[in-house]
Amino acid sequence: MSETTNLKTRTLSEISEVDTIRIGVDLVSAARRNIGFLRTVNESLWLHETPTILEAIRRYDEVWMPLICDLTVVGSTPPMILPPFDVEWIWFCHTLNPVSYRQYCESRFSKLIGKPAIFDEENEEYAFMRCKEIWAHKYPSESFENEVDSDSSQDPIFVNEDILSEVKKQRYLYSKFSEPYMSEIVYLIAARERYKGFLFMLQKFSDGCSQFVPASDILLMWMAHLSYPTVYAEDLKDMWDNMGKVMGLWGTVKAKEVEETKKLWEKTFDQPYEKAGGGLGMEFNGVASVKPPVYWKVSDTDVNTKYKSMVPRFLLEVCTFLKLKSRMKATQEETKRDFLRLRMVRCHRELKLDKPISNVSCDLWQKAWHLYCEFGTRGLMLELRHRGGTCFKGSKLQGATGFHWNDLLRAPSLTMERRIEQIRVAVSITPPVQAPYLLKCVPDRVTDDSGAMISDVILRLNRYRPQEGRWLSRTVLDHAGRECFVVRIRVGGGFWRRGGETPSTVKWEDRIIEIREGSWSYVAGSIGRAPEKVVGTATPKVPTTQCQAAWLFSTGDELMISWESSTSTSGMTFTLRNQTSSDSSLTLLKGRKLQYQVRNIRSEMKEQGNRNREERVEDEDEDDEDKEGFMTLIRFTEDNPNGKATALLNWKLLVMELMPEEDAVFVLLLCMSILRSVSETKKQDVGSLLIRRRLKEAKLGARDWGSAILHPSSMPSSIITSPYIQPWYWNAKAVMADTKTDYVSRPPPSTYSAAEGSDKLYKTGIITT
């Protein structure tokens, strides 16, 4: 049986103010503000142009620091003013080197210059405007804004080279703290607790390690502390020399130093040093760690909240650590057949990750699994099992314990420890944050003009009034298998009733695509009516000399498709333009681009020792766009002039992943329009549009396609090829294939009733013969 015990004699939460230093600034608010500030800096491309940087450093050195010095009284709180944005960036970078900053302040002003702790937006605005008034009064000839023209030649500016070096070093600082969960209050509170524990360990073992390596969450808090120099100097006045042993933001460390830090932490707190959201992301021996397999960035808005049928998807990072009780060391021979199995509480019931007990240490905590899980999985289960003998298969359950996300969110440092027999298990998580949407279209029945399925049931309910029109239908399912949209494609006219059918084809320009929001209203079994609310349409336009296919969307966008050959899509080009808005522009690129590029994990991990090897090895099938059907949607805005990938779609499989700021209906219209156009051009049913029946889906939760993704560092060679623990687009065909029939490559032989129409009608309606 499982057992929950308090195995530590001293925990992080038990450290009192007497044991460690008192921190004189609200680190949670400071860190949260710093992350937002760094994000703005990262997006402000103008700020990083050389003339702008040089001018900003001059303004900081010659204008701002003398100004703030005159207003600063030694021993008092820093004046409540904030400088211009460019100057604040220089100031921030300079404070991250406390030795250099202190020497600069004392040599020039004979005192250390502090920064005011302002975390309220209204107070920040007031402090900024107050600074603007003082600036204008004291320096009337100096513009408050950085007005240097980066495009024109400027007179040489002589700047402080030490400050310039610090600014250049921090150019990509946001990349270290860009994970969306890092702005969550519960994460920051846990990080503050671990930072205080890190300082306590530093006090206790300052002579026990030559270099202390901070985990990423501790590094975030240390950075927040550093950015308030007078507070930092006062808080750590008795530890100034010890802090010099802490590896900085961009240090390259040795594996030995990492192991020493881990051992000291475990000696102090008897818990894993690494945790979810608190990894060691620095370079080791000059080699960066393997990047995570999911693209998980902050989204300002979710434009899909207007669709009530769409439920946001939330992800969290999970780390599981194991350690044996010391007395098990003598019984290793007896536990050779024992192993731990990880499963999810809900969803992905086929997921079984095994870890032999013989590989687990009794000296140090070892990371067993590193995953990314949807919050809907609820938690994970760990089972201790014993393999059967040589004459029979299977395993016997020895004990089990569970970790639920809601319990972990309330746990100190977002970490819980439990025991299964003599095995100690520690699980840590990050707060769940919104992740990209996952949508797929599955075949469904033929419908009439009203949206009702062609069926005797509907005919009877309509008192045998003929059903008019023929529309192919696709049901859109989200990551949890919920129906959120119904896509309908008009292919024919005419009517149907018992004993009589007069189908007719319609002109190309009348073969519209419409998307209705919501789920089917079922009246008998799988027979029903589509939802009434139409939220998007795509209307085909008459081809021109510039393109072979064109579509006008209800969103105001126009899609034009051209190709070199009607027998291949390799030469296909796409043009997107919006006729009603100039706020952004769009580009469609063939293949999996930017963050969706597929890396060869084996090669990447094998070549970790080669610093110069930074390229990503593409899958061999990436070059064969005719087979893949992947498209990456790039959106250019004022905030992202270089473009940002907001969606990945596969028009052949009708599957898509999209960021919250991208419109789901627009991406659905893109998918369906491309598939229709390619089918029309190639005169083939390339996307199985002729399937006019609902196919049996995998049982809900049996094979989820995003509920649990394993980090590459946790992928043993025996399961690295499993598609269901990797991002869906790494092996889309395998993930999207039906459990019984792979209709993507082998459409099932079916006989359709006269009511549903013969293949001839749909081939005429879809494909020009």
UniProtKB/TrEMBL annotation:
Residues 617-626 have a biased composition (Acidic residues). Residues 476-657 form the GRPD C-terminal domain. PANTHER family: ENOLASE (DUF1399) (PTHR34365). The lineage of its organism: Eukaryota, Viridiplantae, Streptophyta, Embryophyta, Tracheophyta. Residues 601-616 have a biased composition (Basic and acidic residues). Residues 601-626 are annotated as: Disordered. This is GRPD C-terminal domain-containing protein.
